[in-house]
Amino acid sequence: MSSALVWFRRDLRSFDHAALHHALRFAARVHCAFVFDTAILDALPARADRRVEFIHASLAELDAALDAMARAAGGTGGGLIVRHGRAEDEIPRLAAELGVDKVFANRDYEPDAILRDSRVAQRLAEDGIGYEDFKDQVVFERDEVLTQTGKPYSVFTPYKNAWLKAVDDFQVSSHAVEKYAAHLAPKPAGETLPGLADIGFAPTNLAELNMPVGMSGGKRLFDDFAARIERYKRARDFPAVKGVSYLSTHLRFGTVSIRRLAAHARARGGEGAETWLSELIWRDFYHQILWHHPQVVDRAFRPEYDAVQWDDAPELFAAWCEARTGYPIVDAAMRQLDQTGWMHNRLRMIVASFLTKDLGVDWRLGERYFA
C-alpha cells in the first residue's frame, strides 16, 4: 500500500490544496504534518508574536477539519502531526518513521525556503523517499508569464496585460480534495497539537483584534468583502474607510485559496472586482520578481540604487518606529502597525517613502521592522 506525507507550510487549509490533492490521488494512506521551524522561530525578536499565534490557532482548525473530512468520506479519521524543530531535520525523520514513499509540499519562492526544501529533498532521497512540490501560492509562477523575447517582466503593467491574456478558467480552478479524503491517515496514537508555551511562545492581543484566524476566519473576511467589492476601487484609497479586503494575513499563510479569490474577481466583474484582481496580479508579479531576482531580498532591484548613501541616523529611525515623527499620518500609521500588526496599504506607501526619502534611512531597516 503506497503512503505519502503532505508537508503543510504557507497553505493552512484543507480545501483547494495542490499538494494534498496530488498526495491523495497518489497514495492510499496520506499523513499530514506541520513543523514549527526553529530556524525561523529562534530568529524572532520576541516570544509573543501574533504571526505564531495566528499559525497556531489556524493549525488547530486545520487539524479538526482534516479529521472531519476524512470521516465524512468514509475514512477512519485524519489530522495534523505537528513537530517543533528544524524542518530540514524533522520532515526527513518523520517521513522515515511513517515509512512513506513520497513527501508532497506546495512550492515556496523565497531563497531561504528554496534552500531548505532542496536540503529536505536531498535528505529524503538518501533514505529512498521521493519529494515533489506544486504551484499553490500563486496563479502564475516562475516562467509561466514572460515577455515575447522569453524574459521575465520588470514593469507591472505589461506583466498584468500578459497575465490577463494568459489566465483562463483552468488556471483558477480548484484542486479537488474532499472526494479523495478517505485516504487520509489517522494521527499516531497520543499525537496532540502542542500549546504555544510548548514551543516557547506566549499569547498576544490577537484575540482582541478584528482578525479572525484559520479557514473560517478567511471565509468570514472574504464574505464580508464580497458584499462591498463594488466600492473597492474608490474606498481603498482612504485608510479610515472600510474599503479593503483585510485578507493579506490569510493570503500569507494560505488559509484562503488564491485561485478561488481570483476566480471570484473574474466572474464578478465590474470596476471594483477588476481593481482587486489587479492587486492579486501585483502579488503574482512580485513572486516572479523574487524568483528571477532573489537578490531583492537584501539589495535593490536596480543595481545602481545600491550606491545610495543612507544617513546614519538611529534617532530618526527610532522616532519613525515609535510613532513620534511629528507627522500625524505617519505616526498614526505606525501606531496602527504596533498595536495590531497590520497597516493599510496606502499607509504602508506613505511611511516607507517617508523613511527613505524624507529621513534618508536605509529601507532594509524599515523592512526588518515591518517583518
Description of the molecule:
By secondary structure, the protein is an alpha/beta fold. It folds into 3 domains: 1-135, HUPs (Rossmann fold, 3-Layer(aba) Sandwich), CATH 3.40.50.620; 138-173 and 215-302, Serine Threonine Protein Phosphatase 5, Tetratricopeptide repeat; 308-370, DNA Cyclobutane Dipyrimidine Photolyase, subunit A, domain 3, CATH 1.10.579.10. It has 15 helices and 5 strands. The protein has helices at residues 18-26, 38-41, 50-72, 87-98, 111-126, 156-166, 214-226, 232-235, 248-253, 258-268, 270-292, 314-321, 328-340, 345-358, 363-370, and strands at 3-8, 29-37, 81-85, 102-106, 130-134. It has a 5-stranded parallel β-sheet with strand order 3-2-1-4-5, sandwiched between helices. Strand 4 (102-106), helix 5 (111-126) and strand 5 (130-134) form a beta-alpha-beta unit. Helix 6 crosses helix 11 (270-292), helix 10 packs antiparallel against helix 11 and helix 13 (328-340) crosses helix 14 (345-358). The protein is globular.
